[in-house]
Amino acid sequence: MQHFSIWSLLRNSMSYHEGWQKQWRSPEPKREYDVVVVGGGGHGLATAYYLAKEHGLRNIAVIEKGYLGGGNTARNTTIVRSNYLWDESTALYEKSMQLWEGLSQDLNYNVMFSQRGVLNLGHTLQEMRDIERRVNANRLNGVDGEVVTPAQIKEMIPYINLNTRYPVLGASLQRRGGVARHDAVAWGFARAADARGVDLIQNCEVTGIRREGGAVVGVDTVKGFIKAKKVAIVAAGHSSVMASMADIRLPIESKPLQALVSEPLKPIFPCVLMSNAIHAYISQSDKGDLVIGAGVDQYNGYGQRGSYHTIEHTLQAIVEMFPMFSRVRMNRQWGGIVDVSPDACPIIGLTPVKGLYINCGWGTGGFKATPGSGWAMAHTVAQDRPHALNEALSLNRFYNGHLIDEHGAAGVAH
Ligand SMILES: Cc1cc2nc3c(=O)[nH]c(=O)nc-3n(C[C@H](O)[C@H](O)[C@H](O)COP(=O)(O)OP(=O)(O)OC[C@H]3O[C@@H](n4cnc5c(N)ncnc54)[C@H](O)[C@@H]3O)c2cc1C
């Protein structure tokens, strides 16, 4: 694999940067694979990478209907944190956080992970009690967290208006939280997976899942049938569509979620700030854009756009907290399709079909889990059983009632 270093940069600058090799190959699909991963987003690519790296599998393909990282991976607002409420989810998000902390080195690809801190504001006494409870739970789980006062928030962001219609009473702060560059995450995993022999097949929609005697035997695609011993569905907003190809009904609703960015500004916003009560969040990208988002649109659908009133409401909330941003021009707005589960927790595990595995339900908050999700999914697929980290996150919880309700951790669950 081509190694990125200051020396390779210098060497290539001598030849006008024309000598860089392609980041990954574009092979034609083979007739048969040990594992086919459906979905070339961050989670699918990370699954393939860890299958090769941690479990020594080589005959793997990632099948993507569009281009790598063109789904939610490229559409999210890149907030990374691990301060969830319940032990089961915290454990997985914290595993992910630990992988983030060494990811650029592991992939030899700069994913621009920036631990600039995430604030979750509290605007009511009840919200502050919930924040205190969550921070205590986090600390008991070894996850960093602190409760900060309005004065401390003002110190971090001097121009914030704390006396909004719902005054800011405090916040939780996870200093290890932050942001990363989303497409670099997809490209980094893709490049590293390719280097370990994974075939990355783009523009190849999966149209069917073939089974024989209750076990999966392969997938039908627009490029023909591909035989596979195991198939992993990692298709985010299209998970229900994929699962229905194997006659499985998932407890998932697919909804549009929007975001928008402003024109680039000089560095002005030092951290990530989220508010559940007024339903908006904001950070600044390394390019300088203010990155703004909110909650899901209220209707189900597969259109990758959202409704105007959601965006309007979000901007009202942002401008109320940061009046000086009222004169900033917005550059782009877009939507993605998020896969929302009833308890706001992901589903990673086996399905009733032998050899078929599912990873979905990340809803509005799966980007932060990309490395951890891929790591746990790879273990599940390779060993044909969940890892302790995702045992509680199986489909079974919707039958036995052991739900893990993370709605309380953040109304805006990013
Ligand atoms: C606007 C927005 C803001 C968000 N903000 C945050 C945030 O700040 N922090 C956070 O942690 N999370 C956030 N999320 C959620 C996060 O983006 C997702 O949970 C995460 O990216 C899911 O990754 P993935 O790899 O599973 O999905 P995707 O990147 O969507 O990958 C799934 C892939 O499957 C492919 N696919 C689907 N059907 C087929 C088929 N039939 N055949 C082949 N391929 C198929 C798709 O084309 C797609 O590329 C946000 C999401 C959105 C939309």
UniProtKB/TrEMBL annotation:
What keywords appear on the UniProt entry? Cytoplasm, FAD, Flavoprotein, FMN, Nucleotide-binding, Oxidoreductase
Q: Where are the transmembrane segments?
A: none
Q: Does the keyword ATP-binding apply?
A: no
Cofactor(s) listed: FMN; FAD
Q: Does the keyword Oxidoreductase apply?
A: yes
Ranges for domain Rhodanese: 35-79
What's a single GO CC term here? Answer: cytoplasm
Reactions listed under catalytic activity: sarcosine + (6S)-5,6,7,8-tetrahydrofolate + O2 = (6R)-5,10-methylene-5,6,7,8-tetrahydrofolate + glycine + H2O2; sarcosine + O2 + H2O = formaldehyde + glycine + H2O2
Question: What Gene Ontology biological process does one annotation of this record name?
Answer: tetrahydrofolate metabolic process
Subcellular location as annotated: Cytoplasm
Q: GO: which molecular function terms? A: nucleotide binding; sarcosine oxidase activity
Taxonomically, the superkingdom here is Bacteria
Instruction: List its EC numbers.
Output: 1.5.3.24
Q: Which InterPro entries match?
A: FAD-dep_OxRdtase, FAD/NAD-bd_sf, Rhodanese-like_dom, SoxB
PANTHER family per the UniProt record, alphabetical: FAD-DEPENDENT OXIDOREDUCTASE DOMAIN-CONTAINING PROTEIN 1 (PTHR13847:SF287), SARCOSINE DEHYDROGENASE-RELATED (PTHR13847)
- UniProt record similarity statement: Belongs to the SoxB family.
Name the chain's protein. Sarcosine oxidase subunit beta
Q: Which organism is it from?
A: Hydrogenophaga taeniospiralis CCUG 15921
The beginning of the lineage is:
Bacteria, Pseudomonadati, Pseudomonadota, Betaproteobacteria, Burkholderiales
